From TrEMBL:
Alphabetical list of PANTHER family matching this protein: UPF0102 PROTEIN YRAN (PTHR34039:SF1)
Pfam families per UniProt: UPF0102
Key word Transmembrane helix present: no
The keyword Nuclease is assigned to this record: yes
HAMAP family from the UniProt entry: UPF0102
Organism name: Muribaculum gordoncarteri
Protein name: UPF0102 protein E7746_04045
A Gene Ontology molecular function term of the record: endonuclease activity
Keywords for this protein: Endonuclease, Hydrolase, Nuclease
Assigned protein family: Belongs to the UPF0102 family.
InterPro entries xrefs: Restrct_endonuc-II-like, tRNA_endonuc-like_dom_sf, UPF0102_YraN-like
Entry superkingdom: Bacteria
Amino acid sequence: MAQHNELGKWGEQVAYEYLLVQGYTMVERDTRQGHFEIDLIATKGNRIIFIEVKTRSDLKVDPVQSINSRKIGRICAAANSYVKQHKLPHEVQFDIVIVIGNPDNYTIEHIPDAFIAPMRGYR
């Protein structure tokens, strides 16, 4: 496995464990909906939460910049498909978790309710 893939898997595990401590109930990991992937799916209260995890070894590039309108559209399309497929009555929330560093020294930033789904149809 390529080094960046290993870093990403590690970051998802760190985010998973962090969210458990924050009271999230983890539902699924690395779920594919058509051509799109959802990193983590959780519930908390009456919400189903779709979580995008960004892992970087350093802060040369702001990880949030990689979550542009196209990426948001893809996440929302996958979430919409998931909610319809499972007939979920929950409110939907989109979170971002950013993990910077390596297993010996890292920081986590959690952005709950990071964005809302755009008001348009999904293809």
